[in-house]
User: Fold these one by one.
Assistant:
Number 1:
Amino acid sequence: MNIQMVDLHTQIAEIREELDEAISAVFERGAFVRGPFVAQFEEELSALYGGAHALGVGNGTDALQLAYMATGIGAGDEVIVPAFTIFATAEAAALLGARPVFVDIDPATFNLDPMLVEAAITEKTKAIVPVHLYGQSADMDPLLDIAGKHNLIVIEDAAQAIGAEYKGRLVGTLGDVGCLSFYPTKNLGAFGDGGACIATDDVLAASLRKLANHGTERKYHNELVGVNSRLDALQAAILSVKLPHLNAWTEARQKAAYHYDHALNEIKLVTIPPRAPYADHVFHQYTIRVPAEARDDLGVHLKACGIPTMVYYPVPLHLLPVFQELGYAEGAFPESERTSREVLSLPIHPHVSEEQIRYVAETVASFLQEPVSASP
Ligand SMILES: *Cc1c(COP(=O)(O)O)cnc(C)c1O
């Protein structure tokens, strides 16, 4: 059985003709940067987000950086970020001279624990950055309440959560700016890098657009120091072909997750991904917990059985070498630390079959239920 973490070949084969046509159209038009293909995709993305402004940018990390820049975050400011997320969430703030202030996650959701946020706020705090990890929304209402009370910006890292909902509303539109990534393995993936910022506020949207284009709306009349971060036309054309399929692909992921749940539920040492009652999970990842002492061996065993797995993320941000200067010690965020030792992401994508899922589950079960052989 050929099982992959992500199966882009099957997805491409499914829409090959449309993709070829779209790519040829870009070649024929010769508009490779900005231009009609990007404008069209931005319109389609805006429609998905209920008419919010959508700006195509170079990648998801740039989307975060631009969100920080457009909301005025810079040197000396503090930004509240979960201790358990991808490096980029904090990196983009640190690059601007801001200080990432970490907060532990709620182990029941893998997301920022709203109960712990207020204690981390100081007079330097500018923003809260919830990450909708693995495709499930953070608990936004309490976070938005806290932000409102302390006059903080909310930037949503929705890179893993395109189409995910919180109480029936799309994540990415709940805070001030929503950040998306179209990295090839994301739920909506380009054939290279890509990303987007979503914003409902007209002024903020204009500022994002300006900053992404060297700080100007008019060439040679730069008003701000910005960056050059563009979604290129080929990627936009490819994303326009893929976007209409996103719903069906998301449903296929959710169905695969449901099959995993049923197949893994009986295994005592496995905790299946929790579902928050307020969230509609889009399963960018299907991430189980297993006892920390078994996690790495299980990964090795699965690999030997032809099953790839990944650990997202093995080191919580406060323990990364680069953030040692921030002065956090081990033990500062116990749930993030424990989670980084227990999580294992199993293969999930729209084309993973029920048979493959059963095989993965059986292999997990047979490994974990084997008595651990004691060393002599
Ligand atoms: C992928 C990802 C990013 C960064 O996106 P790139 O397009 O790779 O720059 C940021 N945050 C999260 C949560 C991600 O999963």
Note: Confidence is low (pLDDT under 50) at residues 371-376.
Number 2:
Amino acid sequence: MSAFRERLDALCRELHVPSPVQSLTPDWPGAQAVHISIKRDDLIHPVISGNKWRKLSPTLLSLSSPPSRLISFGGGFSNHLHALGYASHRLQLPFTAFVRGDYRQHPTPMLRDLHHWGTDVRYLTKADYRRRHDPAFVSSLHGDAPQALVIPEGGSQQSALAGIQHSLKEQPLVFDTVICPVASGATLAGLVSALEGHQQAMGIAVLKGQQYLESLVSNLLDRPYANWHIEHAYHHGGYARNTDELIAFCDAFETQTSVPAEPVYSGKMLFAVRHMISKGMFPEGHRVLLIHTGGLQGARSY
Ligand SMILES: *Cc1c(COP(=O)(O)O)cnc(C)c1O
């Protein structure tokens, strides 16, 4: 076996999969009328964040030989760049991360980790960052780009869906509605495509994007599906925006359940679920499965 494949196998052996599913009994109004469980993808690896591993794994596992370089994109707190930075360090793959904005004066904990892992970090102006989907522009940024494996922002591409589908199939799960946070839509799209029978998927938008987020999900799916929708009332002002109420909710939830919640993704999802349950939006006895998508590294700056 190649050294690359051995490194990949060693990384895979560290993963805590299937990720544990636990039932939740929070003291939320109305919560006793429904069954809530949470799939703890935040626990699959101490460094690689839950859904980012799920989305990257089909790409990494399909490589028969190592690419000369990985290239990807993200913000200064990106869970995706963090997961990919760690994976490329472990796999000894050269990795260039293009970051939106210039953090040289104030590197985030995420960027410090990337530097520690030997990632080639390049800062782009917001205007240049907008051109990240243009292959000619990417080539002009990086001479290796024609041979490099370019992974889109968030790891969100068609191939990512298989990793999310796998997460829903890796153990028997009994639920009526599965719920996850939504940013680029690949996690929700993967869940939607893995549902059976009467099951529904619900996304909680973590940014302002009515219609836009729906189109991202639809574009990733191979055909139209009728078993999903996105709730848009719980973004708390936009991506990575929050309120004192949300922060206090996350703290209280964590104290009560011992399940960590950060305010960018999982906290907004949990806040939404509490609110919807209190409004009686789920019938009595409904079985809700929450996906804890990880992302706790991003909360180190809070
Ligand atoms: C990236 C991320 C999401 C959003 O997933 P998408 O597939 O981009 O919709 C949700 N939760 C966490 C923790 C993330 O890091």
Note: Residues 56 and 263 are 23 Å apart (CA to CA).
